[in-house]
Specification:
The structure is a homodimer. With about 140 residues, chain A is an alpha+beta fold. Chain A has 6 helices and 6 strands, in the order H-H-E-H-H-E-E-E-E-H-E-H. Chain A has 2 domains: about 80 residues, Winged helix-like DNA-binding domain superfamily/Winged helix DNA-binding domain (Arc Repressor Mutant, subunit A, Orthogonal Bundle); about 50 residues, Ferric-uptake regulator, C-terminal dimerisarion domain (Dna Ligase, domain 1), CATH 3.30.1490. In chain A, strand 2 and strand 3 form a beta hairpin. The interface between A and B is medium-sized, with 33 and 33 residues. Strand 6 of chain A pairs antiparallel with strand 6 of chain B, so a sheet runs across the interface. Chain A binds a DNA duplex (25 and 25 nucleotides) through helix 2 and helix 4.
DNA sequence: GTTGTTGCAAAGAATTTGCAACATA
DNA sequence: TATGTTGCAAATTCTTTGCAACAAC
């Protein structure tokens, strides 16, 4: 038996590799849009995966804390999307919720510069672009 | 009687200039941090202003729609802050919730460039910096 | 075997809606 | 006066918590 990569990644983050967590992580990895806890729970249930809503909430939260997921606020609810580890920004389609990751050194530079000018101690920043992706605007 | 500027501004936006709306608008104009509907309601009540929580919610929402306020998401709840009309970004202090508006042509340029590259039809963007302001990090 | 995790039911919190009384234009 | 607005109470919706059964290590 070879090393189980997803399970290993979870353990490295101090999380036990339970069936539910692997399911959620896999589901998120398989999609390129963002999804809410409620919606994901419904999808998994409909796909025959036995998992509780509470667990979906806790799992998404834990995975986001561990850096596996990015979070978005969508009119009052939290949506999550799988992300690569390093810092990046987003191109968000408002029609299909697809999210493209983009890196932007220009923005990083801009952040440092502005912050320095105002004596601001930066803890984080976000620079996201919203609109319609090529498919949806076609 | 001279023209009442705040009342006039409301009417221009298609909103009746009620005591409650003027109160909310004034309260927001007087502060440089962002505040939630719940908190603002409590403050106004404590200041002796008779206003219902429902009205605070509806008023903040209407004022934001009309472009008088910017909205922020603060861990599950919406916060509002008075803003100037033209497009800008924010420097947000996580300790005192103070918000400084900043303009950034660099960011505007970056947005256009990225969007064009990917065939994205931009409807909006945000570029906010979070951290501790000079006062709070001192 | 320990300890972290799950999931149900219940609680909690923010926000919205129905509707009759009321204020603005 | 006609229509938009208010505010209470009730309803909704998202999210969290208590706790006993259970699974991972």
């Amino acid at each position: 038996m070879v090393t189980d990569a997803p399970a290993h990644a979870l353990r490295e983050a101090g999380l036990r590799a339970t069936r539910q967590r692997l399911t959620v992580l896999e589901a998120l990895r398989a999609r390129e849009d963002s999804i809410t806890a409620q919606d994901l729970h419904m999808e998994l249930r409909q796909a025959g995966e036995p998992i509780g809503l509470t667990t979906v909430y806790r799992t998404l939260s834990a995975l986001a804390d561990a850096g596996f997921l990015d979070t978005f606020e969508r009119e009052g609810e939290l949506a999550f999307r799988h992300c690569s580890v390093d810092h990046h920004h987003h191109l968000v389609c408002e029609a299909c919720n697809k999210v493209e990751e983009i890196t932007a050194e220009e923005v990083e530079r801009w952040v440092q510069e502005i912050a320095q000018t105002r004596g601001f101690a930066v803890t984080g920043h976000r620079a996201d672009i919203f609109g319609l992706c090529a498919d949806c605007s076609a």
